[in-house]
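Bench notes, afternoon.
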Amino acid sequence: MPWVMKQRFGLNVLSQPPLTQNLGPWLADPPPGSKYAQRLAREKDLMGALIDQLPDYQVFRQNFAPEIANWLPFYWRGFHQTTRYTYRLSDLSDVQALWSGFQAKAKTDIRKAEKQGIAVERTSDIDAFLDVNELTFLRQGMQLPYTRTYVKRLFAACEQNNAGAIFLARGKDGRVHAGNLMVWNQHCAYYLMGGGDPELRNSGATSLAMWEAIKFAESVSRIFDFEGSMIEPVERFFRGFGAVQTPYFTISHVRSRRVASLMAARSLVQAWR
């Protein structure tokens, strides 16, 4: 089970890297012909062994992949679970069927962008993408939650392994309206990051860039994951592409009662702000 050790206020925190949607146990397929009860017993033993191998920590928190439906072995060890949601297109093989599943607004935005002559290019221009990505955060009065250097290193590694691409939507004047960064493996393609110019946000380019990314994903993977958001406006945008709501588990464990009390108090304060 992969993990990243972080230091927070002098505490050892086992978590996941920035821009990593999920981690969790990675178990090989059971032997062919295994009965259901045998598979569950095997998962119990393997997950228990993985928990035993975790390094010393005070706080554990990870998002498990949607494919991990059984977290019971963690429950028996005192871990807690919160259900969150992503959105997925589970079959990319029929592009026309995907288009038919879009809601009217998504289709309207895509056609609107095309009528304005906006075109989407697949590119490696990470600086142009980061510029428009940063504009999205600045519009909300926020700073980038990661460094540009970190994203450049990540994208370079993806390119070296033929596992990442940038899609930029440009107007006739060459100005970037919107863009997204997608990564993939043979199983699933992930919408990792996106952004749009606030001054051009009504052009429909964000939807057009997403549509082009989805169509490209069919050539490299089987599933498209929007890395869904619990933020209502973002959820509504993803849902507009006909994606299916897909649950995944956030698993957490706090070993110190004092730390647990502090974290609970902090969550209560944030809820009342």
